Amino acid sequence: CTAKPVCCVSWIGGPNRLAIMSAPPGILSSPAQPIPDTDFLSSSPPSSTQWTPLSTRTSVEFFIDQGNTPDDMRHQMLSSLDDSTQLDRSHGYEDDATGDFLRSSGDEQPIQTILNSSRNEDVVSASWMHLFTPDERTRHKHLVTIVKALRQELAQASAPTVFRQLLPRIVRLAHECPFQDIKKGFQDFIVQARSELDKRKVQIPEVPRPSRFFREGILPVDTNKEPQASIFKEIFLQTGRVNHLDRVLAWHPTYQESFLRTYNYILRADGPLPHHMRNYIGILSAARFKCTYLVKQQEEEFLMNGGDPCWLEGIDNIPPKLQSLLEVNAILAHQPWLIKASHVAKLLRGDDPFTRWTTAELVQAFVLMAGFRALAGLVGGLGINPEVDFKHHRDGFSSTSSPNGETVYDISSEDVTQNTQQIIDKLKKALMASAMEDDCVSTAEERRARFVEAEETSAASGTVSGTVTPGGSSVQKLVHEGWGEFAKYIGNYTLQHQDFDVKAKDYQIFHIHEYSWQEQGYELVQRYYTGSAELLDEEFTTIFELTYNKFNDQQGIDTAPFRRSVWYYVHRIFGAIHDDYDYSLVNNLLNRRMKAYVKKMVCKPEDIVASDVSNLGYHLQPAEKCHIALLATEARKQAELLYGLHAVMKLMQS
Questions:
Q1: Is 291 a catalytic residue?
Q2: Which of 509, 552, 583, 601 could form a disulfide with 454 if both were Cys (CB 3.0 to 4.6 A apart)?
């Protein structure tokens, strides 16, 4: 990453966070008094606003969305950026000794340097990057320049091509920007340009709602509600967008802040693995769950981090070191209980130095794989739609459903109402606590029987096992078998989900009291990937303990037994038993609909459809369904990590 860049630039697609989170919290400056209303088309910015300068800032890297842009054009864009940077320095935008930046104003850049259209690609503007600053004067100046350039371009013969490329971004900023000046500026431009665009037969794209499953309750990006408003602004200043997953997670800002810290550290901060390899591991991980949203997002960021485009043609073109990870990736994705110390030994102690991993690298890879699998579960479980300017604009998974999809509401019925009241009554009773205490004196056989029964449901999430043995599977065969566009990232490792069998002879139940995250997993991650263990632990603890003491519309409810039943049920799906937990509570609190939804989310999120979410057997608010999704995916992340880390420990002890 460039040591002292001028500013961070826009998005690359999906839930990206381009900024490297190396600065302390609170780096965003704020106006000392409210920003006055102003016409953004005015030639002079507001003069009455006094700004507190940034005294500390994060290290950020400017990326250019290269997509399919030819190398020569990409170099031209970078050169244009360099010229713009030099111009900014001459006007006092670059850092001084105190680290302040973007404080002065200067002459507008020539229009021709603002709009440079690549060959059928995006329109790249040096002024775009200056919109992503807390300094309203700087935003105003460059917004005026951009709109002036757009108006001039609208009269050119090339306008249809240029605006078909640029309109999705303009539309997103006009509808999904937390800063009112930017939002209003692009809204006004669209209104003024609509007739000319219609004449040129350029269609203005529609903005999909954030989720296919939830219409109501999702906060607008320009909300005044705190802390969500501050979170949205900080995300926008770091990445140039507030993506749809960010908006849905805003139902639970305490968790969201923890999640963002972890995500940024794992993807952006210093670590054993280079950044482009982290992106590729993200691709491989999300591909196992057929998550288009994450795969395409990571493909683009991979290129921006200097990755070889040939790698994106398929795993035949990746280095042997990454190829050696494919088997473990498949196992941890679908049947993590099958991983053994021998799998880890191949990676850490292999004869071929070109395929050998260090322990630190492998631990980070395990963290990345578990994290992206959890994200894929959220994308599927919450029905996340891509943003309007996402290049692969459709739903988050490889499917035929439309971006807006079907509006889903809970089905009001006597059974659902009765079930809701029954579970609320259960949660109110002290019998729940006594049931847990009773388990302490139950026999091991009784606890095992309850553990087995907790998974009994007619809604299995698929039992096709596939194989992890290298064979002769061709890409064409994998496409035919249902892997589709992801076949190039799967290879011969076609393993899929199969239910954990407590009677199996080739593997056994994983006892948490023998190897837990708190006691052993945390220590191993902290030893080899310093900094991430504390963040992961904070994320696990936050979601495990998060409560609003309500169920549907009834306040004062202790939901701890219900929340724990979701967490422990997910661990049960993956064969991990907590010896101090009464698994009879799982079936007592989670009905078949709820268990089916949770199981799909952590095993095959690509199969989730609207009907899975519309009626979970209880009356639940959308935010509560999101809460359940967060519990399930974080529990899945922890379970996958435990299996991988345990295999590392077993190898060390051998």
A1: yes
A2: 583
222, 177 contact by CB (below 8 A): yes
Long-range contacts of 357-360 (CB under 8 A, 24+ apart): 357/321, 357/324, 357/325, 358/272, 359/528, 359/648, 360/272, 360/528, 360/529
C-alpha dihedral sign at 247, 573, 338, 487:
negative
**Contact yes or no for 284/311 (Cβ under 8 A):** no
SS (H, E, C) 367-392: HHHHHHHHHHHHHHHCCECCCCCCCC
Catalogue the E-assigned strands of 95-197: 116-117, 123-124
pLDDT tens sequence across 390-415: 865 455 555 433 334 444 444 456 67
**What is the tens place of the pLDDT at every residue in 199-246?**
888 899 999 999 999 988 899 999 999 999 999 999 999 888 899 999
For residue 105, give the 3-state DSSP assignment.
coil
Name which of 301-305, 390-394, 578-582, 637-641 the model is least confident about.
Answer: 390-394
User: What is the distance between the alpha carbons of residues 157 and 348, in angstroms, rounded to a whole number?
Assistant: 59
Please state whether beta strands 554-555 and 550-551 pair in parallel, antiparallel, or not at all (unpaired): antiparallel
Q: Residue 211: helix, strand or coil by DSSP?
A: strand
Catalytic-role residue among 7, 8, 177, 291: 291
- Number of helices (H), then strands (E), belonging to the chain: the values are 25, 6
Q: At what angle do helices 560-573 and 414-428 cross, to 10 degrees?
A: 100
Q: Which residue type is seen at 138?
A: T
Closest residue by Cα to residue 172 from 230, 120, 128: 128
Q: What percent of the chain has pLDDT over 90?
A: 50
Among 362-371, 390-399, 433-442, the range scoring the smallest mean pLDDT is: 433-442
3-state class (DSSP) for residue 251: coil
Taking the CA atoms of residue 274, residue 275, residue 276 and residue 277 in that order, the dihedral angle to the nearest 10 degrees is 50
| pLDDT score of 97 more than 90 | no
DSSP 489-554: GTTT---------TT-SSS--EETTTS-IIIIIHHHHHHHSTTHHHHHHHHHHHHHH---SEETTE
Supply the pLDDT for residue 82: 40
| Nearest residue to 147 via CA among 201, 187, 198 | 187
Task: Decide if pLDDT at 558 tops 80.
Answer: yes
Alpha carbon distance 163, 167 (integer Å): 5
pLDDT in tens, 71-95: 443 444 334 434 433 333 333 333 3
CA nearest neighbour of 197 among 232, 229, 170 = 170
pLDDT at residue 114 above 60?
no
- The closest of 227, 221, 125, 129 to 179, measured between CA atoms, is 221
**Quick check: 484 pLDDT over 50?**
yes
The closest alpha carbon to 134, from 64, 223, 238, 253, belongs to 238
Phi-psi region of 102 (alpha: psi -120 to 50; beta: other; left: phi over 0): left
Q: Return the structure tokens found at 629.
A: 């999704």
Threshold 0.85, pTM exceeds: no
Sign of CA dihedral 374, 377, 381, 387: positive
Q: DSSP for 398-423?
A: SSS--SS-----PPP-HHHHHHHHHH
- Under a CB-based contact definition with an 8 Å cutoff, are residues 166 and 128 in contact? no
Q: Which of 64-68, 452-456, 548-552 has the lowest mean pLDDT?
A: 64-68
